[in-house]
Amino acid sequence: MSALRAIRTLPRQVRPARLFSTSTPRGDLARVTLIGRVGTEPEMSQSSNGTQMMKYTLATSSGVGEARQTQWHRILAFGEPHPAGLTKGVMLYIEGDLKTSVYDGEDGKKHTAVTIFQRYAQVIRRPQTASEGGETPTE
């Protein structure tokens, strides 16, 4: 915090142009941060080059009462960036990169799919089981 105060006290002409990074921007960025509940049991598989990957969905909700809406996000994690014991119902914080793809559906129409390539994940809360004296949260 003292480093931030030191920068604030510098005269305007001495301040660095960008406080958040010293690197040169390399292009567009589509990064998201989500907090939600795992909606499906994660599926483990291997990519064509042998890298471990995990697919699952994450539900996020917004609004109150009858205006409450839930959105479902497709998450794909490569390698080992995922927490151990990830199961349906776990509240999770993730950071990832967006990738949008367009494909032709079985109905002949073009469809758009958004996938989040997970970079970081942290478990916030695991659901309680009936044996622990609680019920699984239904958020």
From TrEMBL:
<dbReference type="GO" id="GO:0003697">
    <property type="term" value="F:single-stranded DNA binding"/>
</dbReference>
<keyword id="KW-0238">DNA-binding</keyword>
<dbReference type="GO" id="GO:0042645">
    <property type="term" value="C:mitochondrial nucleoid"/>
</dbReference>
<protein>
    <submittedName>
        <fullName>SsDNA-binding protein, mitochondrial</fullName>
    </submittedName>
</protein>
<dbReference type="InterPro" id="IPR012340">
    <property type="entry name" value="NA-bd_OB-fold"/>
</dbReference>
<dbReference type="InterPro" id="IPR011344">
    <property type="entry name" value="ssDNA-bd"/>
</dbReference>
<dbReference type="GO" id="GO:0006264">
    <property type="term" value="P:mitochondrial DNA replication"/>
</dbReference>
<dbReference type="Pfam" id="PF00436">
    <property type="entry name" value="SSB"/>
</dbReference>
<dbReference type="InterPro" id="IPR000424">
    <property type="entry name" value="Primosome_PriB/ssb"/>
</dbReference>
